[in-house]
Design brief:
By secondary structure, the chain is of the alpha/beta class. It has 19 helices and 17 strands. The structure holds iron/sulfur cluster.
């Protein structure tokens, strides 16, 4: 489906430029609907004026992505999955990253501790905070009351979204009744259970997962559930391990995604999920392999799924603190895959204080490429340096390329020194230039009226540089001798 243009959207708006939505013009509003910064529903005229009802319907339809979004949970940690417009990230961008859910058994004696650990898990990386998105509660006990009790306890301890997993409809719906106000995802609708689960989902406005390894059956169940009135659906075509099965799993997911995004198949137009945790039910765990070798297979499946923009995965490994490596691998891969390729990863230019710098503390200079500024800052903090970091606007380009392209230049650095009043913070005029920009040092001394010392090529060498080369009093003596 071709993306609508801002003009097509504008044509359906009121065109009065009344500013009630917070935008100066209807055209500005139209442009931001495409970026999903606002929704059609944010224009009060479109929503309230009965004469505009036809345009309203047309606009909502025009702005609905070919793969519909589904929201699980409530409150600040509710997660929206799907809603994608393209098959490949480079064609535009992916909007909603793969949601990571970790499974917990309803009869696990450590349920409370696990829930607390998973809910509080936060990893800071490159300026982002990486977290999990939900917990999949499995009915392992086979007991209705146990499942109900575990669901209740889970939602009392955590605000993470919940997926309730049971192939026993009576047990599934008993737990769902207990926590229906938390908008859990119900797993699973099959050809035998669709009617009962569908009815409950419609009454309580809950999302459901339809499961079938047969894609024709999956599409037929999707059609049935939509006709029945279910509003939010997730598709699971199965996750299969063993020789040849990775390609089956991959092909099924891609067929569903292609059906939704390229073919606008109304039955496939929903988020797709996978269950790498299925490894533990499908593979015989013997003594011939170490535990980590098994866990690694699960993580590889998760990584393959993330790389083709699957919308949700359920993991078993990662449940415990000692398995953090599995989550680190999948969360960092996800962070890279779901960055927006249209945006240069830049941070704000400026002067950043690190630690408690005194008036002879060094001033390090770097670019505003996010992957440069953040590691440099972290290396300085890790080396317990009290210093200043001058971040120069290089249009989000790294130092080596920016030196070659002219974005990191003596003139540009001197302007930043002036703009951010860098030398007001210290009693010296020394700048530490990154080793990769050494050739700018002479020109920078002239442009910024400063003594320039060339630092390490890599910020991991800062500690050694400070021990062996940072001699501000000597630098200043030399600088003052030039003045004479
Ligand atoms: S509220 Fe609606 S009509 Fe008014 S400026 Fe915004 S988009 Fe245009």
């Amino acid at each position: 489906m071709a993306r609508p243009s801002p003009l097509e959207i504008y044509a359906l708006l009121d065109k009065s430029n009344c500013k009630d939505c917070g935008y100066d013009t209807c055209m500005a509003f139209a442009t931001d609907t495409l970026e999903r910064k606002v929704k059609a529903q944010d224009c009060p005229h479109l929503m309230q004026d009965p004469k505009q009802s036809k345009n309203r319907e047309k606009l909502i339809k025009l702005l609905t992505p070919p793969q519909k979004p589904v929201t699980i949970g409530i409150g600040e940690r509710a997660v929206t999955i799907g809603g994608e417009e393209v098959l490949m990230r480079h064609q535009l961008t992916f909007y909603n990253q793969t949601a990571l859910f970790v499974e917990i058994a309803d009869d696990d004696p450590d349920l409370g501790d696990l829930v607390k650990y998973l809910s509080e898990l936060k990893i800071e990386r490159m300026g982002d905070v990486l977290t999990l998105n939900g917990i999949a509660l499995r009915n392992v006990s086979g007991d209705r009351d146990q499942f109900k009790l575990a669901a209740k306890k889970l939602t009392e301890l955590s605000n993470l979204p919940v997926m309730l997993c049971s192939f026993n409809t009576e047990i599934l719906l008993a737990a769902a009744e207990e926590i229906k106000d938390k908008k859990p995802l119900l797993y699973a609708v099959t050809k035998n259970t669709w009617e009962q689960i569908g009815k409950f989902a419609i009454q309580n406005n809950l999302p459901v997962v339809i499961v079938s390894s047969n894609l024709d059956e999956l599409m037929s169940l999707s059609a049935t559930m939509q006709k029945y009135g279910v509003k939010e659906i997730v598709l699971d075509s199965g996750t299969y391990f063993g020789p040849g099965n990775l390609s089956v799993t991959y092909d099924n997911i891609m067929q569903l995604r292609t059906g939704a995004i390229n073919k606008e198949d109304v039955n496939a137009c929903w988020p797709v999920m996978g269950v790498p945790a299925a490894y533990w039910n499908q593979v015989k765990i013997g003594d011939e392999k170490e535990l980590w070798e098994h866990q690694y297979q699960e993580v590889i499946m998760g990584a393959v799924m993330e790389s083709i923009d699957i919308n949700l995965i359920v993991l078993h490994t990662g449940q415990k603190k000692e398995e953090i490596w599995a989550l680190l691998a999948l969360m960092t891969l996800r962070q890279s895959l779901f960055s927006d390729p249209r945006i240069y990863p830049a941070v704000d230019a400026g002067i950043y204080k690190i630690g408690e710098p005194d008036d002879m503390a060094p001033i390090f200079v770097t670019s505003n490429y996010r992957m440069t500024k953040i590691p440099v800052e972290q290396d300085l903090q890790g080396a317990n340096q009290n210093c200043w970091l001058l971040v120069v606007d290089t249009e989000g380009i790294g130092i080596e390329s920016a030196v070659a392209g002219g974005q990191f230049s003596a003139g540009g650095i001197a302007e930043a020194v002036k703009e951010f009043k860098v030398f007001d913070n210290v009693k010296h005029r020394v700048l530490v230039l990154p080793g990769m920009a050494a050739r700018l040092s002479g020109a920078l001394e002239d442009e910024a009226d400063a003594f320039v010392v060339v630092g390490p090529r890599d910020s991991s060498g800062i500690l050694k540089f400070m021990d062996t080369q940072w001699k501000p009093e000597e630098f200043m003596k030399e600088y003052e001798s030039w003045e004479k």
